[in-house]
Amino acid sequence: MITYIISQTGLPESSVKNTVNLLNQDCTIPFISRYRKEATGNLDEVQVGDIVKYKEQFEALEKRKTTILKALEDQEVLTPELKAKVNACQDSTILEDIYLPYKKSRKTKAETARQNGLEPLAKIIMSQNNNDLISTAQQYVKGSISSSEDALEGARHIIAEWINERSDIRSNLRSQLERHAIISTKVVKSKKDDDNAQKFRDYFEWEEALSRIPSHRLLAILRAEKEGVIRVKIEIDNDRALNYIDRKLIKSQNDCATQIELAISDTYKRLLFPSLSNEALQKAKDKADEAAISIFANNLKQLLLGSPLGEKRVLAIDPGFRSGCKVVCLDEKGDLKHNETIYPHAPKNDQIGAIKKINFLTQAHKIEAIAIGNGTASRETEALVRKIHFNTDVQVFVVSEAGASIYSASKIARDEFPNYDVTVRGSVSIGRRLQDPLAELVKIDAKSIGVGQYQHDVDQSKLNKELDIVVENCVNSVGVNINTASHSLLSYVSGIGPKLAENIVSYRSDNGSFTSRKDIKKVPRLGGKAFEQGAGFLRIKDGKNPLDDSAVHPESYPIVQQMAKDARVSISELIGNKDILQKINLKNYATSTVGLLTLEDIIKELEKPGLDIREQAKVFAFNQTIKTITDLSEGQLLPGIVNNITAFGCFVDVGIKESGLIHVSNLSDSFVKDVNEHVHLHQQIIVKVLEVDVARKRIQLKLHKK
After folding, report:
1. DSSP string, 651-686
2. 3-state per-residue secondary structure call for 100-137
3. Residues 6+ apart with CB under 8 A from 87
4. pLDDT tens per residue, range 80-104
5. In what order do the strands lie in the sheet with 182-187?
6. Helix, strand, coil % in the chain, rounded to nearest 5
7. Which residues contact 21 (CB under 8 A, 6 or more apart)?
8. Beta strand pairing status for 369-373 and 395-399?
9. What is the dihedral of CA 123, 128, 133, 137, to 10 degrees?
10. What mean pLDDT is predicted for residues 386-414?
11. 49 and 32 in contact (C-beta within 8 Å)?
């Protein structure tokens, strides 16, 4: 296993060995990367995650080998050579090729031919020594075989199966597909003028090398095929492929050679090419999935680590026209204090009443910020709010609503607000997203947040797994206040999970706030392992021990106590005192298990305990004269917010219903290798309008360098 992981990752042997050992002890990725740096050689969570991935791959391969060896043993065909070949295999595709000749399958043409006694004839043909094949074939005419031609056809089916099972031939054809395959598309004539098909019109007739097709394009093509809009073909140079097989198998110029040539043509068209071209397309799809999932995961990370406003009192508005704007007031902790509906827009147009109400609620609940959802009527509501002259400094933010409706109808929302309808829950979600995006967004299925492309087209199990890892890493990198965190947030803490999260919330409800990390051990079923894995990521504000509100792990408390003692100060006096902390000689506190890496982390944490790694939220305003796509014109410079990142560019919200696209070619004057090197999600930027296609609702933008 270790050798396999090293071959895939290139990481040092000791790092891989120690990490695998920790994983086998049920340690989590965040815990290993944060608190076991000496053991891993300072691997970050991405590198530890790679070790997890290849460890699982190796274990799956070994499990498959065991299954195959058992099947071969049951068939009584397992020779020492075959066993050694299976055990030595390190590639799942090649492993299946080895097993292919022994696979029990549905009844085939070759199996029928064998039952008719034609295998000896097939062997005679393959020997290529027979110069009177018709007479030889006549000897096999009996039962359902009515002629020598029937006999030869049956023998060819057996030969075709043998050819199909040859690993060298499969490997060569696989290589040709990998290097030279072309993917082409044709529109289904009956769908050509369909309105729904127009979004795929770029692919009504398309041709491209399969090895070079970008992930987003392949996924778009496969979606179009799934919806019945186009037909997809994979093609290579058939003559080249057939010539290779001919050279491999045909060693004579007699009638046997003719029969083998016919068998080669048959197996290529019927067995080899359909199977291996599908495999090549699936491999390309897997690669495209991986790229799409990686982009989605990166976007999700940026979104979850978005700027929090912090513990401030917020008035949140879910805008609407006919149904009105739902308004809620939240306290610093995000608890709902008031809700009602105002009707400033058509058809009621009660702007004066709405302004009075917002002003009154802002004063009554000492509101410090207003959050406005970015959906229907958002711009109109923002313009209304900006007209209001508040007595205090009230900041106004437009907040993404993506996924808010999913949350508002979810069991989590019903449990939180059993006495309120979906509109109130949705408004609360908008307000809480401003206060703390991470704490609120973990309640929503990540696929519903809308920061990826083709998320419903990729492998769902791989997507869910990767997104769960992202959420877990984000939650643990920020840390969680155990006394205010929701069940959803707690469930992502290292070592906790959904059941223990429930137990923590129940214990907190029955016994009041936790006053020390030691109290966490009193939670039912939260044992020593869970405490070890999670304690460093759980924070206790204003607790008995000031270290409980830091990322210093309880196992390192004695080290900090000794540092304070040696400096002749209390722990409280040591925390935040850079003069003392920078004078500490860390080598004096190193042990066989605690090295300089951990000690340096402890000092960093003591200098700024509980520091939020996220940037603070910034106020932003769209161009107030732009309301719809028809208000745009080429050459305009507009403020915008990056709301999605893809492999081919990024989408930008400029304050209208349609997001504009900055293609990679318009992100920089030089070559763009990675979009994320130029922009990040929710970044506030200035864009230049290049092109507006009102009919197709498409906007082309360019990143404007300030």
Report:
1. EEE-SSSSPEEEEGGGT-SS--S-GGGT--TT-EEE
2. HHHCCCCCCHHHHHHHCCCHHHHHHHHHCCCCCHHHHH
3. 65, 69
4. 999 999 999 999 999 999 999 888 7
5. 205-209, 182-187, 230-235
6. 55, 10, 35
7. 39
8. parallel
9. 0
10. 90
11. no
Query: Residue for token digits 């608190």?
Result: 35
- Enumerate long-range contacts of 217-226, CB under 8 Å, 24 or more apart: 218/183, 218/284, 218/285, 218/288, 219/285, 219/288, 219/289, 219/292, 219/453, 219/454, 219/457, 219/458, 220/454, 221/183, 221/185, 222/285, 222/457, 223/454, 223/457, 224/185, 224/197, 224/200, 225/185, 226/457
Per-residue tokens: 483: 């006394």
Q: Tokens 């300072």 — which residue?
A: 42
Euclidean distance between CA atoms 581 and 461, whole angstroms: 46
Dihedral sign (CA 86, 87, 88, 90): positive
Q: What is the model's pLDDT at position 676?
A: 87
What is the pLDDT at residue 103? Answer: 83
**Rounded to 5 degrees, what angle do the CA atoms 299, 305, 306 make?**
90
- Find the largest Cα–Cα distance for the chain: 108
The stretch 354-374 carries a mean pLDDT of 96
- Which residues contact residue 425 at a Cβ distance below 8 angstroms, ignoring those fewer than 6 apart? 407, 408, 413, 416, 417
Given a contact cutoff of 8 angstroms between Cβ atoms, the answer to whether 423 and 326 are in contact is yes
Torsions phi, psi of 282, nearest 5?
-65, -40
- Any idea which residue has 């007031």 for tokens? 329
- pLDDT tens, residue by residue, 19-36: 999 999 999 999 999 999
Quick: pLDDT tens for 435-474: 999 999 999 888 777 677 777 888 989 998 999 999 999 9
Nearest CA-CA partner of 262 in 98, 415, 414, 152: 152
Whether 706 shows a pLDDT value over 70: the answer reads: no
DSSP label at 270? I
Mean pLDDT of the residues in the chain:
93
Does position 317 have pLDDT exceeding 80, yes or no? yes
Q: Summarize the confidence of residues 207-219 as an average pLDDT.
A: 93
Parallel/antiparallel/unpaired status of strands 684-693 and 698-703 = antiparallel
> 3-class DSSP state for residue 632?
coil
Among 267, 266, 264, smallest CA distance to 256 is for 264
Do 694 and 655 touch, CB atoms closer than 8 A? no
The reported pTM is 0.84
How far apart are the C-alpha atoms of 660 and 698, rounded to whole Å? 7
Place of tokens 């973990």: 442
Token pair in block for residue 107: 């009844």
Residue 236 amino acid letter = I
Q: In 10 A of CB 524, how many CB atoms?
A: 11
Q: Which amino acid is at 28?
A: T
Q: What is the pLDDT of residue 620?
A: 84
Least confident span in 63-77, 447-461, 477-491, 560-574: 447-461
Beta strand pairing call for 230-235 and 182-187: antiparallel
Structure tokens at 688: 């230049």
Strands, E assignment, 178-220: 182-187, 205-209
Higher local confidence (pLDDT), 419 or 610: 419
Whole-number CA gyration radius for the chain: 33
